Amino acid sequence: MTHEVSAFYPPRARWYSPLVSASARLGRRLAMGHIHLPSGVSPGGALASVLVPGVAFYVCGLRFWGKLALVFSAILLFVNVLWFGSRPANLAFGLLLSIHASGLGFLLEKMLPAPRFRTKLILAAALLAFLACGLYLPARALIQDRWFLPLRLNGRLIIVQRKSPPITLRRGDVIAYSFEGANGPGIIVHGGFGLGPVLALPGDRVRFTQTTFEINGQAQPRLALMPQSGEIVMSERHWFVWPNFDMYGHGNVVDQLPERFLDLGMISERQFLGRPCRRWLWRQQL
Questions:
Q1: For every one of its 286 residues, what pLDDT tens digit does the chain have, with 9 covering 90 and above?
Q2: Which DSSP helix (H) or strand (E) runs through 192?
């Protein structure tokens, strides 16, 4: 027996019907029916305009200005990569974001039916916020968390490779690490970042004397402010890196410094940031 749908008993509304109805009301209120791609702009061109700065000018017919925007964007990207983390790179980053937002704003203005000046201002601010929060800042955070991290140490800008696992470290490898601030009688240590060679690995025995320090019985020249006596055994997932950063003293606190430095020199896996690149493009780092 077949069942036919009666005109007197229409099918029940689906679960998503309220969403469809709400989107239709929103579209009518915003006049979305009057918004369409400009003539000559394909969906692929519109997508490229969203992803690549400067493309929007080209696909909208401004060929010369579009090519100029693409070339300028490529130069800004190169500056951002070469001087990653510096003030010129940050300036290039902001200019690249501005070009991208301007191009998208030009495309959307052609899609809207005669937008007013206030609408253009709101649109420009919204596009800038959308690109900054939805694309540029998350992309930069992803790069710094997963691949490369710029650090300014002792007046130098060092690019650190984040992919290096600490389990592969060997004695003599230079690493970048973070450390927390600490306060004591007459001593204030501000948290920050450090850079230095690995002196001892997990399980190594470190012994201090008045003239040397020993790693598993092998003597090496004593470094500044090292303890003059004592012995430690490195814990699992800890590496020994003697701190090297600027100090400002007040009062007689020299006797307390070796103990503080010894605590700072115990670098845990959580503090490990990565290994600095020996070269960044053609720029020598180490």
A1: 455 555 555 566 666 566 656 555 645 554 445 567 777 788 899 899 999 999 999 999 899 999 999 999 999 999 999 999 999 999 999 999 999 999 999 998 888 776 677 877 888 889 999 999 999 999 999 999 999 999 988 788 999 999 888 889 999 999 999 988 766 666 677 788 999 999 999 999 999 999 999 999 999 999 988 999 999 999 999 999 998 765 555 555 556 778 888 988 999 999 999 999 999 988 888 8
A2: strand 192-197
Q: Give the span between the Cα atoms of 1 and 245, in whole angstroms.
A: 88
| 148-153/156-161 β-pairing | antiparallel
CA-CA distance, 208 to 219, in Å (whole number)? 9
The reply to whether 5 falls in a domain is no
CATH number of the domain bearing residue 158: 2.10.109
pTM of the model: 0.77
Q: Where are the beta strands (DSSP E) in 65-129?
A: none
Instruction: Give the count of domains, the chain.
Output: 2
Does residue 32 sit within a domain? yes
On whether both 123 and 163 belong to a single domain, the answer is no
- CA–CA separation, 79 and 128 (whole Å): 21
61 within domain boundaries:
yes
Domain containing 181 equals 150-244+253-284
- In this structure, the answer to whether residues 276 and 181 fall within a common structural domain is yes
With a CB cutoff of 8 Å and minimum separation 6, the contacts of 251 are: 186
What pairing do the DSSP bridges indicate for beta strands 182-184 and 187-189? antiparallel
Question: Is there a contact between 222 and 209 (Cβ–Cβ < 8 Å)?
Answer: yes
SS3 state of residue 152: strand
